[in-house]
Amino acid sequence: MSHSGYRGKSLEFLTKNKIEIGDLVKVKTDSAYSGILMPRYEHSDDEHIVLKLKNGYNIGLQIEKITQIEIELHSSVKKENITQPQIDPKLPKILLISTGGTIASKIDYRTGGVYPALTAAELNASVPELSEIANIDTEVLFSEYSENLLPEHWVKIAEKLDSYSRSEYKGIIVAHGTDTMQYTAAALSFSLAGFPKPVALVGSQRSSDRPSSDAALNLISAARFLVKIDTNGIFVVMHNSISDDDIACHWGTRVRKNHTSKRNAFQTIGGSPAFIVKKDTIEKDPLFSPLKKTYNPKINFDSQVMLVKYYPGLDPKVIDYAIDSGYKAIIFEGTGLGHVGKVMYEPIIRAKRKGLFIGMTSQCIDGIVRMTVYDSGRDLMNLGVVPLGNMIPETALVKSMWALGNTKDINEMEKIMQENIAFEISD
Amino acid sequence: MIKPEVSDIQMDKIGLRVGLEVHQQLATGTKLFCNCSSIESTEYPLKFVRRLRIARSELGEFDPSALFESSKQKTILYYANPESSCLVEQDEEPPHDLSPGSKETALIMASALKTNIFNEIYVMRKLVIDGSNTSGFQRTMLIGLGGSLEVDGKNIGVQSICLEEDAAKLLNDSVDFREYTLDRLGVPLVEIALEPVSGTPEEIKKIALTLGRLLRATKRVQRGLGSIRQDVNVSIEGGGIVEVKGVQKLDQLEKVVEYEAKRQHGLKIIADKLKGLDTERIAKERDVKDVTEAFRNCKSKTIQKALADGAVVKAIKVRNFSGIFGFEPYSGIRLGKQLGELVRFFGLGGVFHSDELPNYGIEEAEIQQVKKILESQQNDGFLILAGDPKKLDIVIESIIKRIEDAKVGVPAETRVATMTGETVYLRPRPGASRMYPETDIPPITVTNNELEEAKKKIPRSWEESILELQKQYELNSQLALQIFDSEYLDLFESICKDKRISPNFVSSVLSGTITNLERRGLDSKLLKNSDISKAFEFLAEGKIAKESLEIIFESMMNKTASSIEDAIQKNAISAVEDSDLNNILDELVLSNTKIIEQQGLRSIGPLMGLAMKNLRGKVDGQKINQLLEAKIKSRIDTSSKGG
Fold first, then answer.
1. Where is mean pLDDT largest: A164-173, B562-571, B576-585?
2. Which of B120, B152, B275, B533 has the maximal Cβ count within 10 Å?
3. Angstroms from B193 CA to nearest CA on chain A
4. Catalytic residue (one of A52, A257, A328, A399)
């Protein structure tokens, strides 16, 4: 951390002059500058050092042009004064598990760094409203950008949640990056179907260090939801519009991220969000009813499933590769009502002979797969492709990983895929 | 209008120093971090709502300016039009790459000012949570430091040049909401801060004018009201630096500097007066009391209304301050007035002070009650304020601080310029600790090549630009000057592309006629550039006469017409056909034979008067004159020949 981001020539320069990040230095080049040495972006060159001037701006100075540099003041680590939140015995308890995706952060203006706020005290400093809704315990499970998550992370999260299934927490928040939040939501929905407490996955589209971040309202609404509503299930809690007003609680197997950056990127496909947290009330979608299931966790995933989006020109060899590499299932994101081109028939036949499960979803995302309507669909069903109703492709992928994780029997797997475990199929 | 009473000599004696900060909007075709056009919209089909949250400073202290804002807890309403804003302005998408045109323009300006340009530029986030930036911060980058501007032979130092985004435009600020439109958000701005100088308000104005001319000479800047804004940092010896924002016109700048010099020196005089007195800091538990009951039946409408809204009334005792609140070292400058501005910021109607009472419906009986409750001594002063109990605490804290500051003299603060050249309190000066890197944008490199190119494009000096205008359009120097300094230069050049119209005439209409109409109080904003172009087009096509332009513009500016065509119709000034003109003039001659007989050719005078009454604006005056003269001559000839 003392030379974060510096490498090569710039690192040499700093070590030679015994300068560390945070030191106040005086630099002479074509002009004289006084400022604090700042960290450097990872992919920048090694020819510059970065200073934060007294006026607050950062500037880059070419090392070659520096004729003199001296330290005016060594960096001192300032002890942060954070107050612990007040515990209100009348309020219910909620657990917040962090997996990454900074849902709350703090800015060190001196260095310009943004740090995640992970402890209960730091969280309280960032979102003080939470302490009026519930007493929040925090736990850091891991800290990963969600695009780096693997099925083994789903297992970790599920096992951690399972360990609290009989706790006194009214509900559990899982702070998660938005990129793969829907995958995790699906994974938890299947492996923990019937979990006795509501679980809210919360993220933010605009990083939590900015005043405009959607993080705080998402968090606050998730807490209000968990405290007030008596339901179970895995929900994704994010903005319902681009305004800071209504927050949607999407059912975990029917939610998808449909925009790269908008606050309301997450949408319930083919329906309305299960709940909407409004300013003073929480409204339930009339078509939603809680999942009635005995809790019997099955936390296993087999990642040997391939999700294949069909497009004109897709090389059928992709399927051969899957077969030869030991994949156990292929989920197609077909076109329209659930079709793939004729060119895929042969590899599909091969796959079926080798005992792979082949399921069909649609790249239209919304709408049902109905393969009885056209020849193509009928041909494919005849070949053994299983239509998966209106299951979202990503959800179907996760479900097959989960199904395969819990059975080696392909027929059993097929049955599970067609069974409605956690409302992933709307009948 | 306040008549300034501080003369030039006194300016010098009080150690007046003024630092100019100019914000110039660029006209590079797109916004700074997206491809939107920087046009002004008139409708806003999209509307959404946000609440900005305050971020804590690392030192554990809140940024005072941000805290001030957050204490008002308003909901922000944003209005947008896709023609002038996109998801970036809505804070729904990360910024796109820095606009190359804006980068180049900033480099050209920095080169012209001989600034040291950095070869790695970092975009920073500057915290702004009043709602004028949807993300809660303004993106700003330091292009370079240092440099100089030559003004009347003197070298005025340049402190810094920044390239940044303009803020959203405030539409309305009410009790619970603040409304902004997003068309202006993201428009590129170059901010040039000059070194503080000591000088007269007039000299300061000349500096601002010179800098403005240099920027306009690049031909890459927006024109029109609001496209260039001045902030002035004014200080006197021993006083804090006061930032005055939002000066839009140069005349206003001069008045603002004068007013601030007077206000600040006045505050110093008040501080000196306080030095001789024993004034302990106000202690809330001892000196602030609830006096709501004493004012239950008060005749003051302000207080009655506040009470009806559930307010409480509090009184603050200020030791030995009797006579201080109302003391006026200069006309209009009073500590009481400063406190009034401060509380209005929090949404309170005002604050009453002991020196102005009894008045405003507050009577002697109530005053005595207050004094009793406060246990006031004879020389003590007091303040009375009414408001929401939750808000009042913050307000009282601010008042206590402001009174402490009054003992020192001039507190550093941020004020805003009024239309008449005065200043009003806006907010505390922001602390330095509210900038951090904009990590969505990697550092921007400035290559040697780019610097060379920028140097080549440094504009000609203002004098050279004027000479060029004169040459290109055959304008006299006065017209060239006027049109160059006006907001209509671009429009002038585009109209003059039509060779049928005389540039002299166009220039005199744009910088003369329209200005005159403005001086009469009419609104030039109602006359769009497209309207002006259209009017000149009609003129070139012979559809209207020269004289009618003023009539048309007047109708647009006083709202009697909504379009050029409408104005022409309403004023019945469509050009008259030659055949009709002949008939009209023939008739005129026939019905005035007596005058013609009596005065001969001199009858052209009165007859022109009659003719113009009906034909003004519809036909070129010269043409009427020529035709009429010919007809009169012919009449004289015929009658002299007899018959």
1. A164-173
2. B120
3. 12
4. A257
